[in-house]
Specification:
154 residues, alpha/beta, two-stranded antiparallel ribbon, 27% helix, globular, binds iron/sulfur cluster
Length: 154
Amino acid sequence: MILVSSCLAGLKVRYNGSHSLDQEIKKLVEEGKAIIACPEILGGLQTPREPAEIVGGDGDDVLDGKAKVIEKSGKDVTELYMKGAYATLEKAKIMNVTKVVLKENSPSCGSSMIYNGEFKGHKIVGNGVTAALLKRNNIQVLSEETFITHLSKL
Ligand code: SF4
């Protein structure tokens, strides 16, 4: 089974109430080949919500207690992002997920690039919190930008 970011399947769960619909990913869900999850909603956050970025590192550093997830106004939401990551991992394990397709650049779902914590639109190489946790648990993490090359094998 594949797990995909809810926003890529068209659900309006992004911080600003929008989605990031990818038609191919939506099709996987409609065909029963994929299930959806939004780590931030699973962590207890609401839509809309403040944008948040990882400050002091990336998702691996958050898991190791060396960086934090901070909302634009300064509120520390690290605990909620951690909760969402572990809830997503649990869902993946229950559903025997071996592969995930997560939204790039997100502080939860980014799997190669994330914003750098300055809220100025600058990106750095790194994982979001959920992507880092899933990778540590030997689940293959793709983004909507890389999964197309794997589509024939899904
Ligand atoms: Fe999409 Fe992931 Fe952000 Fe949820 S946490 S809105 S699934 S990128």
